Amino acid sequence: MQRDLGYEDGRLRVRPGEPRTLGAPGLHRLGPDDERDGLLYLPACHLANRPAPLAVMLHGAGGNAQHGLVPLMPLADEAGIVLLATESRGQTWDVIMGGFGPDVEVLDRALLETFDRCAVDPARLAVGGFSDGASYALSLGITNGDLFTHVIAFSPGFLAPAGQEGAPRLFVSHGRGDRVLPVEACSRKIVPRVQSVGYDVTYHEFEGGHSVPPEIAREAVDWFLSRGGEG
User: Fold this and answer.
1) How far is residue 179's CA from residue 182's CA, in Å, rounded to a whole number?
2) Is there a smaller number of Cβ atoms within 10 Å at the N or the C end of the chain?
């Protein structure tokens, strides 16, 4: 892939297509940088010739790709979801540090490798995350709504899209007792904002703090799969 395209606009270039290799089920490291280029998980039921739903999952501040996978990994085999997680170049995602750029480029490369290894259903392609990862997922998802059909935001703090493309459906959850990113200052402001410009939002507050309870993760997966085939 060309590395001089410029990603300051937050736009991802690659799109799903016919895979060139057959990826085996299980967890795979991506790219030449074993520590930083991310992880791809193909579920046990994965068939290379059957397009599968894909969820790109993004970690919180100070996290890594493994942390990004944690919320949905227990459900991936049962649900048949391919999971992809990359890592921020810095302590957190680029747009939070001042603007889109290197993290978008890394994700573009990781998506290219993912699409080369497995068939992905373009009608069920989500970006999600927790905390700063949720904020970044909302920002990327809205900027790239012509690629992502769904956005899963667990306890986001804000959103900062570079533009608005397409109309992905949004799932947002937040704990009422969150002391890291208080719900009053975060999701209760984010949700009305995106609804006001026409986004379809499923919003769930729960009793708890800055976390992704298992039942919330399952609700998000059920929402993603049940709505995946809608136009």
Assistant:
1) 5
2) C
